[in-house]
Amino acid sequence: MFAKVLSQARSAAGLTQAEVSALSGVARPNIAAFESGRREPRWHTAVLTLGATGATIDIELPVTWSWTNGRRPYAIPSGLWRLPIVDAFQVLTPGFHLWWSGPSPQFDLADRSERCRTYELFLREGTPNDIASVVDGALLVDAWPDLILPAELRQAWQHLIDRAHTKLTQAS
Questions:
Q1: Angle at CA 44, nearest 5°, toward 38 and 48?
Q2: Could you read off the pLDDT of 106-139 as tens digits, one per residue?
């Protein structure tokens, strides 16, 4: 995996292996070995080589899940996540466990109104795996004011939305 990341970062920066070597202080044969997958770098070396390309390393804590205690349990994550763009804007047909009232429609997540409707469905009826595969954190924050959700569900997720707004405020 590191091989692909380093190779893509170097290519995106328009650098040769020799240039990454000069910028990072890591020998060029080692960089070649990392990119070919013959060797894995130690953490410090990985940071140096990626840093030389201008890439950054983001460490994300794993999302854990809990459930509300009300009459109707809802899945609640410990934090928000980002989906790959292909998944965030996919066209999907919810499974029977989510859409049990007649033929299941298709939802185009590239359409904001359909995305809002899908998020409402998945947050209300979905398992953690369902939610994590469809809901994108940034798009959820954007849609949040327009979502029609049960009060208990909205209240349980509100701290995540508030935390995201706080990060946005601090960043600007």
A1: 85
A2: 999 999 999 999 999 999 999 999 999 999 999 9
CATH number of the domain located at residue range(s) 2-53 in this protein = 1.10.260.40
Does residue 77 sit in helix, strand or coil? strand
Spatial neighbors of 41 by CB under 8 A, at least 6 apart, are 2, 26, 30, 34, 49
pLDDT at 85: 96
Q: Which residues pair with 77 in a beta bridge?
A: 65
Handedness of CA 8, 14, 17, 21 (dihedral sign): negative
> Is the pTM here over 0.85, yes or no?
no
Residue spans of the domains in the chain: they are: 2-53, 65-171
Separation between Cα atoms, residue 158 and residue 70, nearest integer Å: 16
